Amino acid sequence: MSRISVRGFAVASATAVTTVGAVVGVASGNTQPSNDDFEAAAANTTLLADVPLGQQAQVEVSSLTQQAEAQAAAADSAAQKSAEEAARIQAAKDAEAKKAAADAEAEKARAEKAEKERKEREAAERASRDEVRSATSFAPQTSYSVAEVQAMARQMVPGDQFQCFSNIVDHESTWNYRAQNPSSGAYGLVQALPGSKMASAGADWRTNPATQIKWGLNYMNERYGSPCGAWSFWQANHWY
């Protein structure tokens, strides 16, 4: 039942009660409004029976339709918000995945670059070692100056290791291939102890700087990995 129907029914009922009261009042001698007043009130009242049944149905259908449309709009709004939130979360996940992939690719590139540089460095070191002269390529002399001994070392020691080799020889013998420690008996450029160890590099170890350089270079490579490794140890311990 619509609001119009309820209101009409209530008004009609009140009018009917008032009319009955008027009749009773007349019978008892009480003064009440005239019939004209009742007719006027009744004329302004819409009785439930006077509202067509089809209009009542239309009012009810219209109300239900409005409710359904409001519910549908609310559902659409909620669905849209949910979809937007899901899209935001997915976008964040995609961005994080892209960043992780980019970081992994950059790390891979750095590792590949480092490996390439290492191989190039090792190749250069091998090439440098291949270019050095052997001890037997120098003609024997009766004596050698410091400059001559250093020139021989430059040709026998790899270029990237020469300075370290030179630092050790500077401290051990000041490039004197006949230097001998009176206390320990260490001998030669690299102060081999005992000096006879250098015989493994050549029988002329006492008089040939090239033989001493050969032995000293082999010793540093085998024990410390390189002359620079030997120099690092020497700096920490003042012997090698």
TrEMBL record:
Keywords: Signal. Gene3D superfamilies: 1.10.530.10. Transmembrane segments: none annotated. Residues 1-22 form the signal peptide. It comes from the Bacteria. Residues 98-133 have a biased composition (Basic and acidic residues). Residues 163-229 form the Transglycosylase SLT domain. Residues 98-136 are annotated as: Disordered. InterPro entries: Lysozyme-like_dom_sf, Transglycosylase_SLT_dom_1. SUPFAM superfamilies: Lysozyme-like. This is Transglycosylase SLT domain-containing protein. It comes from Streptomyces gobitricini. The lineage of its organism: Bacteria, Bacillati, Actinomycetota, Actinomycetes, Kitasatosporales.
